[in-house]
Amino acid sequence: NWHSNKFAVIQGAFLSANRIVPLCSLQKADWDKVCDPILETIQEITQNKGRAEEVKKTLVCVAWLKLLSAEEDESIEVAWKESPIFSLQNGLPEFNWVVFLELIRSITSINIYTCLLLCLPPSQLCSEVERLVEHIRRSPVREEDVTFFFDVWWELWTCKDFHKDSTEEMFTQEVSRMSSKAIKQPAKRLKLDFPDQTTSDPDLVNIFFCTFRNLGAQITQPKLIFKALSVSINALYTAYLCAPEPEVSTKEKLEILSEIATIREKNNEKLGPKMIAESLKDLNTIQRPCRFKPLQLKFEDALQIMVDVAYNWNCNGLLEVEDKSNISYSEFKSKLGLQNVFAAFHKTKRSKDTPLCSIFEPKDWMTQKNVDLLPDVCAEIARTIISQKMDDYQNFALLFADEESWATCDENYIDFLETNQSAFREQNTLIKLTQSIVGKFSSGSVDVSHYRKLMKVTAEVLAAVMRISKRGFFGSNVPSAVTTSFERELNMAFNCIIQGGGGPSTASNLNTAVSLVARVAFQNPEAAVKAMCNSAISNKGSFHIMAKMLQQLPGLSGRASDSNQDAEGKDLLCSCVKDIIKTKQTSQDEKEQLVKFLSLLMQPVVMTEGDAGAEGFLLPQTVICAFVLPNLAVHSVDLELSLRLLHSALCLDHQGGASHWVMLCSPFPLLYVLAQLHNHTVSVWSMDTQELLVTVLSTLGSVVGAEVAKDPDTWSRALFWLYNKTEELDWTVRFLLKPVWGSHFKNEVPASLFAVCELPEQEWSGLDLPQYGLGTGLLAWTECCCISDSLQFTMLSHLSLDQSKPDHLGMFSKGLMVALTQTLPCCSFSQWSLLLQALRALIDSGRLHVPFSLEYCDYLPLLDLRSFACELRLSVLLLRVFQLLCGSSCSDWLSRDGWGHVGALYAHAVRDMIGSLKTKLPLSAAATGSSVLSQEVLFVLSQIYCHVQHVQVMLPGGQCEQLFLSSLELLSHYAAVMGVFPWSCSALESDNTRHFFTTITENLQNQEMKSVLQQKISQLVSSTA
Q1: What's 495-559+570-605+615-723's CATH class?
Q2: Which of 90, 266, 331, 539 is least surrounded by Cβ atoms within 10 Å, i.e. has the fewest?
Q3: What tens digit of pLDDT does each residue of 346-357 get?
Q4: Burial class (CB in 10 A: 0-12, 13-18, 19+), 195
């Protein structure tokens, strides 16, 4: 509605002008006859400055699209349906391009015109600029026409990539729609009268420079000459000579801006945000490569155009500056552009006697200092750029922070910092700001009343940026005026966080907590970090919030670019954690929290969107060097803690490309020490540690192996060193490190293995080991099956066994049982799982003969147990192994911990069998009404239960808790099957089962276990009873 109302007035003005002279055939010379009604109406409508640009942009957009629509011969029916601005266009009379271009010039809408030009495809952009050039050169060529041309040229050069508003989006879409509707004929190209055009690609640089040459002779006014010179010389530099990255520092940039401001003030312009923004935009344009790349015009040709035009001006005495003490802004920009070009000539070792240099270097205005730099003006410009968040404001904030002379520390200075906190959130900026303020404090020139307020403001900036210099606000000498309340603030901060139930749950609460910590850390980082570490370790669940807060205070990591940091301080957090561990006895739960705390801090954190190569608060190599390498010893109290931290670090995602961080941690000695530990833990029955060691060895081996494969020449000596060192260890270690060796070495196994396994000699070789004498082949075979899936597959596929000979099969089965008895105690859970997998494969393939007897059955069951043959045979096999292991010949093999270990492994196998039964008969099968296999499952469960009780009784002590839990699980599943399939067990059968189970359970020595199991057994009542 607003557009329609305003546009109705504009349409009326166009109709009035059309009655004076038809606008569709208006000549350039006749514009003054018709412009008054149009311009007066626009001036009246745009009196509301808030809407002035919007009115002008809408008018330019509508007028331009109307002309393009007419060029495309778009029908009214199509435009009416598809164009969103048809009603606005249709109300305007027919007019030509002269009206449009004169309108843009007259209402000073060059920025709008250039923004819409940049919405066009490159070829169409060039066509429109050529249309403009043709209009400029059409007689009469007035001074304002030439000014218009150079204004458009410069505006196109200064435009950066911009976010399109709704009008610009609509303009782009309409141009695209019209272009796609018709096969567009090539626009009439303006003949620029320039030879050697070897390509037909549109070249905006070529268009502008050729037009500049043609207009040069017509420019005689000094003001216009320097305008043309400033635009053309800077265009030459930015199109051909400018380096990709700006070579001017922020300080130099500020000095130039100060000169510009002083010059423009002398020319009756007011220093303010608008003037500074325009000057900064121009300065950035001068220092950066332009967006338009020359495609036709070579640098030598463009330079020659500059020389020809400048030579003509110089011959006519037009390059002199009358008032050298009060030069214009265009003259100053010309000087900057020429200095840039001459500097580029010097860098590229071009001859200084070029014609361009000979024309301008003798000019005294090129060397004369224009104005004196005023510190107050520099400070004012810096503050304006920062407060208005202009281009590159963060670098200006760094400069502002570094200038101690600007740190007046008065009310205005403090108010400026408080208002513009976000500008000072870069790490270096905050450090420089702190140094400047502390420098002022140290000089004693600051009112003591400003201490607190200034420190509060700076701490708020710090809390927002989440970066702290580890030396704190005052370094080592903290003024007594600000230390009196530190301990109280520290205690208050952490009490608030801890009493909040382990930490804030929302982002706002987290920010509040970080702000509290940041303020106290700003004064004394070490005390704050120590308090955080202590809370993370001691207070249950608080490790998560403490890690989150530290991740938002990365300055405390010690990796900030602070040249004064000492080597010891770089590991501030690690030092604090070490102190806590040394001075207090940490429980298992506290160690658990410590591992989780450090693991979270190693996780990469992206602080801002678009951050590349994000790192964690702690580098993993720092954690390894601080907590792992010093504690890798067999009897170390922190061995498991160290291994868990190493495992957490290795599990972090590694960014591809760069070498893995673990290669900085002496990886080959580390692998050797871990392999030594693996040898020792086998004999101390530390299941968790052994399991963790195998996992860490495999993971670390894979990582190191990948790095070796990428650069084998670099690591070959280390590889051979490690291989030779592992010769003194158990032979299985080299298989755990197989990912490191790759294909560099043969697989070495006890020579006795070749008696039971046909292995190719090209890849395998035998070791003469005294502990592997005659008849130990199956022992070596089972140990190989425990190492990895791939090695197990090799062992199974190359097993030398003639199944057609019963005596061979019988001997193999008995020998394997003996080998299992020897291997079982040395297995970790993962190794035992692999061995169970191999046993199942042998049973299923008929290579392992395990006769099933009915020693726990009063009658022959009339059931089809073929589906459960593997479970029954495996259960009997394990029973026989334990009968042998618990027999008199082996009873002194194991310690108390050893018996607990083998009991837990057996319980693991029982749970594995229960899982297999659940898979074969899911309880959900009852929904289908099928009772197939339910009786069989009950029978198998009863047999396994009896076997478990037999083993429980045989084990020394008779009270393995893991087996007790497995027994409960067997009874629970038995009850579940009875409940889901009630018809699978009659009342009599359930009564017999309860009696049978109770009798078996009576043999248990532990009364408490026996009581619980018998109570569970009493609940096994059939629903048919």
Answers
A1: mainly alpha
A2: 90
A3: 887 765 547 899
A4: exposed
